[in-house]
From TrEMBL:
<comment type="similarity">
    <text>Belongs to the RecA family. RadA subfamily.</text>
</comment>
<feature type="region of interest" description="Lon-protease-like">
    <location>
        <begin position="331"/>
        <end position="457"/>
    </location>
</feature>
<comment type="function">
    <text>DNA-dependent ATPase involved in processing of recombination intermediates, plays a role in repairing DNA breaks. Stimulates the branch migration of RecA-mediated strand transfer reactions, allowing the 3' invading strand to extend heteroduplex DNA faster. Binds ssDNA in the presence of ADP but not other nucleotides, has ATPase activity that is stimulated by ssDNA and various branched DNA structures, but inhibited by SSB. Does not have RecA's homology-searching function.</text>
</comment>
<keyword id="KW-0227">DNA damage</keyword>
<dbReference type="InterPro" id="IPR020568">
    <property type="entry name" value="Ribosomal_Su5_D2-typ_SF"/>
</dbReference>
<dbReference type="GO" id="GO:0140664">
    <property type="term" value="F:ATP-dependent DNA damage sensor activity"/>
</dbReference>
<protein>
    <recommendedName>
        <fullName>DNA repair protein RadA</fullName>
    </recommendedName>
</protein>
<dbReference type="GO" id="GO:0005829">
    <property type="term" value="C:cytosol"/>
</dbReference>
<dbReference type="InterPro" id="IPR020588">
    <property type="entry name" value="RecA_ATP-bd"/>
</dbReference>
<dbReference type="GO" id="GO:0016787">
    <property type="term" value="F:hydrolase activity"/>
</dbReference>
<keyword id="KW-0238">DNA-binding</keyword>
<dbReference type="InterPro" id="IPR014721">
    <property type="entry name" value="Ribsml_uS5_D2-typ_fold_subgr"/>
</dbReference>
<dbReference type="GO" id="GO:0005524">
    <property type="term" value="F:ATP binding"/>
</dbReference>
<dbReference type="InterPro" id="IPR003593">
    <property type="entry name" value="AAA+_ATPase"/>
</dbReference>
<keyword id="KW-0479">Metal-binding</keyword>
<dbReference type="GO" id="GO:0008270">
    <property type="term" value="F:zinc ion binding"/>
</dbReference>
<keyword id="KW-0234">DNA repair</keyword>
Length: 457
């Protein structure tokens, strides 16, 4: 055949011998793409982080987007994944880095409407509405972008591969092709992934192994606050958290999210206490509220919101056994403010203080934070990153902190004369829960164990 049937060029068709399948079980040696060199001679200049323009995303990624990296962003429907990545694409394009946004779930006009609303129109931002993998790869070849956003990987299908879009075979083939393109062209590819009803990433587990970074975008539907967590990161830490505010004008980074979870009361309120939890490397203050009422039922209710119900049951058992706080005939309700979810064990002491305060109808001193993990014997265990927690509480103007005592030196509760001062905040150590309640005048057997520190006194 002298003439090519596609390009109509003469003499461009060459004969290639193809080995018959099943002739040999051994794979023959093939030419290498690049020669092997000592690792010290490999240049790392091509794997440098480039800022995305969104500070909270760069915080989670470890500095920014890395050329040749494949990033997978997963989250619940409606949490704001597309809004976040459209903002990232616009900020990246504004930094003179050509960006391609491929949408398979919406039309180009729908994405344009969102871009108008969020002010995400940039000359270097290209938009394509495609669901075929071959067409997506062609767009990448023609536009030659530095960053590509795929919304979403479950909507792209590869021709010639069995299965429906979003199926195991299709998702695996699409992800492999996009990762190969990212590695070969030094393009950062960010893919949106769907999640199952259990919260896991939809599709094969190999999808998470193929990509370099796996991010989870989460938030309560009744709250505008969103959190971005890194589950896997080959280029940075996996214990960082980014905070965002999703509003009608788009999404913006929240540098100081503490005010969202803390309600400023005009006076002392029974049944409230401030906890300091660690979200990754970032200390966050959250208000814990408790309500205790006499139960008309034979089996009292235990209701939680933002707090683990099993953790509440353990705290109530410790209060009844070691602190003489009888709650077996009372309904107990525990909640957080602003939709915060507390999973840090250091919030145990704040939960105990809130419940005891609600039971005795006695407000703790104003400006108090409590942190410490409660053991089954009633002891307070040390928590990680205590200096960072105390520094954050002091920065926000709290006057008193109750923390666990150092088991190596403490023989009981330190008296006020031996308390520490950190940036104007008084820090008192307590070895167990009953000592912490006594310090806050929340124990009926011992009144006025501590002179209340109040800004009004």
């Amino acid at each position: 055949m002298g003439r090519c049937g596609e390009c109509q060029a003469w003499g461009s068709v060459s004969e290639v011998a193809v080995a018959a399948a099943g002739v040999s079980s051994r794979t023959a040696a093939a030419p290498v793409t690049t020669a092997a060199v000592p690792i010290a001679q490999v240049s790392a200049d091509r794997a440098v982080h480039h800022p995305s323009g969104v500070a909270e995303l760069d915080r989670v990624l470890g500095g920014g987007l890395v050329p040749g990296a494949a990033v997978l962003l997963a989250g619940e429907p409606g949490v704001g994944k597309s809004t976040l990545l459209l903002e990232v694409a616009a900020r990246t394009a504004a930094g003179s880095r050509r960006t391609l946004y491929v949408t398979g779930e919406e039309s180009a006009a729908q994405v344009r409407l969102r871009a108008d609303r969020t002010n995400a129109l940039e000359d270097q931002l290209y938009l394509a509405a495609e669901t075929d993998l071959g067409a997506v790869l062609t767009h990448i070849e023609e536009v030659r972008p530095a960053t590509v956003v795929i919304d979403s990987v479950q909507t792209i299908s590869a021709s010639g591969v069995e299965g429906v879009p979003g199926g195991v075979t299709q998702v695996k083939e699409v992800a492999q092709a996009l990762v190969r393109m990212a590695k070969s062209r030094d393009i950062t590819i960010v893919m949106i992934g769907h999640v199952t009803k259990d919260g896991g990433i939809a599709g094969p587990r190999v999808l998470e192994h193929l990509v370099d970074v796996v991010l989870h975008f989460e938030g309560d539907r009744n709250s505008r606050f969103r959190m971005l967590r890194a589950v896997k990161n080959r280029f940075g830490p996996v214990d960082e958290v980014g905070c965002f505010d999703l509003g009608p004008d788009g999404i913006r980074a929240v540098d100081d999210p503490t005010g969202i979870f803390v309600e400023r009361h005009h006076g002392r309120v029974p049944g409230t206490c401030i906890a300091v939890s660690m979200e990754g490397r970032r200390p966050l203050l959250a208000e814990v509220q408790g309500l205790v009422t006499i139960s008309p039922n034979e089996r009292p209710r235990r209701t939680t919101s933002g707090i683990d119900s099993s953790r509440l049951a353990m705290v109530l058992a410790v209060l009844q056994q070691h602190c003489d706080v009888r709650l077996h005939q009372h309904d107990v309700f525990a909640s957080t403010v602003g939709g915060a979810r507390l999973t840090d064990p250091a919030a145990d002491l704040a939960l105990a203080v809130a419940v005891a305060s609600a039971h005795f109808v006695s407000a703790p001193p104003a400006g108090v934070v409590a942190m410490g993990e409660i053991g089954l014997s009633g002891e307070l265990r040390r928590v990680r990153d205590l200096p960072q927690r105390l520094a954050e509480a002091a920065r926000l103007g709290f006057a008193l902190a109750i923390v666990p005592a150092d088991p190596g030196t403490a023989q009981g509760v330190r008296r006020p004369s031996s308390d520490r001062m950190i940036d104007g905040m008084r820090v008192i150590e307590a070895p167990d829960v009953i000592s912490a309640l006594r310090l806050l005048n929340l124990d009926r057997r011992t009144k006025h164990a501590l002179e209340v520190i109040d800004g009004s006194e």
